[in-house]
Amino acid sequence: MGWRARLLGALLLACGALSATASPISAPGDYRLSLQHGGLTRHYLLHVPRSLPPGQPAPLLLALHGGGGHMELQADDAKYGLISKSEQAGFIAVFPNGSSAFPGGRLATWNAGNCCGRARDQGVDDVGFVRAVVADVQARLPVDARRIYATGMSNGAMMAQRLACEAADLFSGIAAVAGTDNTQQCSPARPIAVLLIHARDDDHVLFGGGAGPQAFRDRSQVTEFRSVPATLAGWIARNACQAQASRVLERPGAYCDRYAACRGGAAVQLCVTDSGGHAWPGGGTVRRAKGAPSQALSANEVMWEFFSRTEAAAQPATPAK
Q: pTM of the full predicted structure?
């Protein structure tokens, strides 16, 4: 059954959760939820996996759509596979919607600092909105506060990095796909695990920096994006990691380098694909994207393995008996 069909099937159950008071959720499924923040009615989708043990605190992953996208697009399993990964790994998946001028929430953007579009230009408090979303989910479901993560595509990846800068007290790690750090300032409250995934031939957010010719027709909607190497160097410095990386994955068309020995066990990792352009590696083709995503690695598999390894590294050693 597709996402839309499952969502429609859950609407009656979700309707009771649209009030100002968060209603507990006790059944797996898909929910469309709303809350008030910053004088606006904001929306998000919530997927509770069938594999989640009842009453047990679960990891939570927020997935932020790209600029000009919307929450239903990021939740489309055929394109991003995050619903399937939620079922397989047992985490709660949350898909917030960015700021949009349209009643249906389409063509939405995130205020990630220097990018993008309406959200940036109107100074929308998206950090506050995301905090409110997490609090709303926590009021409905048992969430493991030590395992709250964010990921995003493009403008959503930039927003995930702003969350790493301004909400490291809440998030333990982020994974940014096809988007660099474009914050105006960044001083995380504590070290935070950061995974960067980028294609060398990205024609929207260029690997070497700048706004690519395919970024947007109206270049005022974007910015001259920071490069992948500069973004990586910034996170290595903030986490005080060793400068020498370890190659943790290498295969035809892709590699991953991990920078460890960071403060608090908060590693930094860069995964690069040779091809795939501005897309989600391992995912399906999105209509607005040029070409097919790289299949040399799966962003979802790499992401969850990174979060799991970082979590293990941050655990205190068990005393010897």
A: 0.89
